[in-house]
């Protein structure tokens, strides 16, 4: 392998979240050596990647299903497309990427990491919750016809299972929130250093531009969520964040439009092509929130706009992650 490729590939393995949870121990040892040979940031991203892969591919939809089950509000329509919606059966993915083996690289790199124990507890709670939820099937009633004895027994059993599911769901929700928070802190801590290393080693190439854009997109949704929680968000803040996302996207497009050279990475450029549509949809959601806020829209409209921003970011990330898994 060309040593010059180790760092950009490490970036996409980390940000693209390509997990090797099912890999053999010797293979993981080789990968860890390659990562550490490149840079500590690459090694840290690669060690966390299997855990982040599990969270992105399984936790997102599991949390959403649990939230909708508990919510007393009507479910908002979900018309966004997701890059990972055409993947295989989710339980097969879960068994592959969310097993207890997904902490092996992190254990070797940082045996004392708090994340090792937290990720193990998360995998245990996730599997307990999803295993039970798959057994809870609503009793069938058609056209008002009274249920059969078998259906009535199933309904009684489902009520009992539903109560147990609620408890397991709460346990899962708590550890999921804790793991996601810790992963986000670690992930965001690494990105500026990786961006600086990319620029120092290769200049502002396509890898730099895509990473810079994804950091700007992540920063925007994070700041909006934080501002919504503590009631500090303003229309001007949303406008500033949207402009940063716009500038990062424009910078990537401008770079890709420049004349080609032998050093251009066609796979990375194709990744930008894949995420262009969801990136534009995400920016449109940011602009809609900004516009409606300036127009003094009703609180419900602003709430719907905020929901759309978060869902559009999820969609953007799903396209990015799937392409990174398939390419790098």
In summary, what is this structure?
This is YiiG family protein. This protein has 328 residues and is mainly α. 77% of the residues lie in helices and 0% in strands.
The percent of residues in helical segments reads over 70%
Number of helices: 11
What Rg is obtained from the alpha carbons, in whole angstroms?
A: 22 Å
| Share of β-strand residues | under 5%
Structure description:
The structure is a single chain. This protein has 328 residues and is mainly α. The protein folds into two domains: 1-203, no CATH class; 204-328, Four Helix Bundle (Hemerythrin (Met), subunit A) (Up-down Bundle), CATH 1.20.120. The protein is built from eleven helices and no strands. Helix 2 packs across helix 3, helix 6 runs antiparallel to helix 7 and helix 10 (266-294) packs antiparallel against helix 11. It is globular and about 60 Å long. The model is unreliable at 1-34 and 138-146 (pLDDT under 50).
């Amino acid at each position: 392998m060309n040593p010059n490729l180790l760092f950009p590939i490490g970036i996409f393995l980390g940000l693209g979240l390509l997990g090797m949870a099912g890999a053999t121990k010797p293979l993981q040892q080789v990968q860890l050596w390659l990562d550490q040979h490149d840079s500590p940031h690459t090694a840290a991203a690669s060690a966390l990647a299997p855990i982040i892969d599990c969270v992105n591919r399984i936790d997102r939809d599991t949390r959403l299903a649990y939230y909708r089950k508990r919510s007393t509000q009507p479910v908002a329509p979900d018309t966004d497309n997701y890059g990972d919606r055409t993947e295989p059966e989710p339980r097969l993915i879960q068994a592959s990427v969310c097993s207890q083996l997904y902490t092996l690289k992190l254990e070797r790199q940082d045996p004392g990491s708090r994340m090792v124990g937290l990720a193990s507890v998360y995998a245990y709670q996730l599997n307990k919750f999803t295993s039970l939820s798959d057994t809870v099937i609503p009793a069938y009633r058609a056209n008002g016809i009274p249920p059969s004895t078998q259906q009535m027994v199933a309904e009684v059993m489902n009520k009992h299972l539903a109560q147990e599911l609620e408890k397991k769901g709460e346990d899962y929700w708590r550890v999921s929130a804790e793991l996601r928070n810790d992963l986000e802190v670690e992930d965001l801590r690494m990105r500026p250093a990786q961006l600086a290393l990319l620029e120092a080693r290769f200049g502002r190439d396509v890898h730099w531009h895509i990473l810079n854009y994804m950091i700007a997109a992540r920063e925007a949704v994070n700041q909006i969520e934080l501002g919504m929680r503590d009631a500090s968000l303003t229309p001007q803040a949303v406008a500033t964040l949207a402009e940063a996302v716009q500038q990062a996207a424009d910078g990537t497009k401008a770079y890709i439009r420049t004349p080609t050279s032998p050093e251009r990475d066609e796979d990375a450029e194709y990744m930008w092509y894949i995420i262009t549509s969801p990136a534009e949809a995400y920016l449109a959601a940011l602009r809609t929130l900004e516009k409606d806020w300036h127009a003094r829209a009703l609180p419900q409209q602003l709430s719907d706009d905020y929901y759309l921003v978060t869902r559009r970011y999820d969609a953007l990330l799903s396209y990015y992650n799937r392409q990174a898994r398939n390419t790098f």
